[in-house]
Amino acid sequence: MRLRSLSALICSLATFLFVGCGDDSSTSLNQQQTSSVAQLQDLVDRVTERAEVDGAAVALQTVALQDKNPFSRRIPIPGEPFAKKSGKVEWLNTEPLTLKKLRGKFVVLDFWTYCCINCHHILPVLKKLEEKYPNEIVVIGVHSAKFDEEKNTENIRDAILRHDIRHPVVNDHDHFLWNSFGVNSWPTLTVIDPEGFFVAINRGEIDFESLDGFFKNCIPYYDKAKLLDKTPIEFELERYEEEPTQLKYPGKILADESNDLLYITDSSHNRIVISDTQGNVKEVIGSGQVGRTDGGYANASFDHPQGLALHGDTLYVADVENHMIRKVDLVSKNVTTIAGVGRQASFQESFPGVTQTKQTGPWFGAPLKTPINSPWALWVHDEILYIAMAGPHQIWSMPLDESRIGPYAGNAREDIVDGPLLPKVPYAVGASSFAQPSGLTSDGEYIYVADSEGSSIRGVPFDRTKSVMTVVGTADLPNARLFTFGDKDGKKAEVRLQHVLGVHYDAGKIYIADTYNNKVKVVDAKTGETRTIAGSGDPGTSDEGVGEFDEPSGISKIGSTLYIADTNNHLIRTFNLETSQVGTMTFDGLEPVIEPK
User: Fold this and answer.
1) What is the pLDDT of residues 318-359, one digit of tens each?
2) How many domains does the chain have?
3) In a domain? residue 196
């Protein structure tokens, strides 16, 4: 679920504390006696104020209305929500917790799933909140999976380490807590006050200012009433047990056949590694520290880079969590920023230049003055850089002269829908829709897109008179397009993928990293027929037989060899198309980045 920045909305979370005082529906809240938080969802909705802005429903809700106590009307939470009857709730980053143990703290439950780009966006907001209120607020990530692969606790552990999450996380694999709190979208935040009452809910992204305003309003009362327990609390984080590896969650790989080189985004080491195909490291671009510093290789910094594109002696980098595009001059060995302003673009900025009087396109802005949103993959064609903009679910373009940047395809509605490249007005139906595009490749006529949240491969034409098509995937389904996935090869209509992230086109075939199926597959670009060529489906590192992978995310090719970024294994794997042999690369001269614990 995607919401625009709440600082610009009609109401903020803090002001919602004052909405509806004396309202008949809110008065009835005190009269209700309920035995399940789930049964209270209709009451939550009845005290909801909704703002409709640019067609986006802002479901910012509170079940508490202001009186002397900021939460004079609160919903009791029966029993112990974390103590599931089966006793199989699994915790990460902590020993098992209970609300009783957390009495005296505000508890923020972040309902998330690790595939979700909007869930990624809220993590730095929560980190900032935790840093400001370390003794008053405890954030708990409630991981409620969308995809089957995400139900696995070890995979969630990898996501925690990949995103440097430092608060407790519970694996809500069967949606017990999700259902208990009436959650219906990712991300959703719910707030429990220091006395253990459910007091607020927010569906969708939220900015720090709104969240901070909420707690500024209510913390003083609890502090004055001596209801806060400010005793510092520490958790046993997964990162304390993490062993250093040469690569750390490598996201993408780009094979340069003309120079026999590999460019690897060592994403969680915040750097780019250049190696030959034998594993001899030639260069490391980036200090390894999180940042957005331009300059020479040793001083430049990135924040979880992903996609790469090579054009002559220039390497383009999708710097995801900086919300920037960076350019590397491979001759002068210098990094510069060419697009983005260092903050995430809001929902309304999916179509730059839109005003009340100017709704129709083209929609472009100056690259260094236009905010962008989670650029994930890149491709160069005819002096134009194409960008898989995962955040607004669009494909953007920027001429290599860096004169302008803006959407090329996608109406910014998260879906798998074929049709014209762009809508006539922003967000309008009847045009193409994407769902977290995360990989790009091309045959010169179409850009092929790994459209991850819809588990589909899409085709975006360079000819603007043509429409977006689906090579394999769910576009033909009447509903549930984002929730239909699986692991099935065969003819186009039969194929099911699971959160595919990597694509590489060659000679009529699209080689894909079928990420959540832990497999490498090949798709006929014309017919959509698909078959598995490597990977048993079980996570692992074995090179024997068809091999094992663990959430591979990037793929590229030189000659008869596929190079695969095997993300959760922290490895680069190979697959020989002639011998069907899987291999594992090692790198001579590559040291891990050692982070302080």
Assistant:
1) 999 999 999 999 999 999 999 999 999 999 899 998 887 788
2) 1
3) yes
What is the spatial distance between Cα 407 and Cα 392, in angstroms, rounded to a whole number? 10
Asked if 180 and 37 touch (Cβ cutoff 8 Å), the reply is: yes
Q: How far is CA 124 from the centre of its chain?
A: 12
The verdict on residue 253 lying in a domain is no
Cβ–Cβ under 8 Å, residues 565 and 555: yes
**Tens of pLDDT, residues 478-534:** 999 999 999 999 999 999 999 999 999 999 999 999 999 999 999 999 999 999 999
Q: What is the CATH number of the domain that holds 132?
A: 3.40.30.10
Contact assessment for residue 458 and residue 471, using Cβ atoms and an 8 Å cutoff: yes
In a domain, 205, yes or no: yes
- Omega into 367 within 30° of 0, i.e. cis? no
Beta partners for residue 143, in sequence order: 112, 171
> Would 206 be classed as within a structural domain?
yes
Closest-CA residue to 54 (of 8, 116, 87, 98): 8
The tokens for 452 are 């991850």
Domain membership of residue 137 as a residue range:
6-240
What angle is formed at CA 11 by the lines to CA 221 and CA 106, rounded to 5 degrees? 30
Consecutive H or E run containing 127 = helix 117-132
Q: How far apart are CA 528 and CA 369, in angstroms?
A: 40
In angstroms, rounded to a whole number, what is the distance separating the alpha carbons of residues 500 and 517? 8
Query: Residue type at 220?
Result: P
**Rg of the chain (C-alpha set):** 24
63-77, 286-300, 428-442: least confidently modelled range? 63-77
Q: In angstroms, how far apart are the furthest CA atoms of the chain?
A: 75
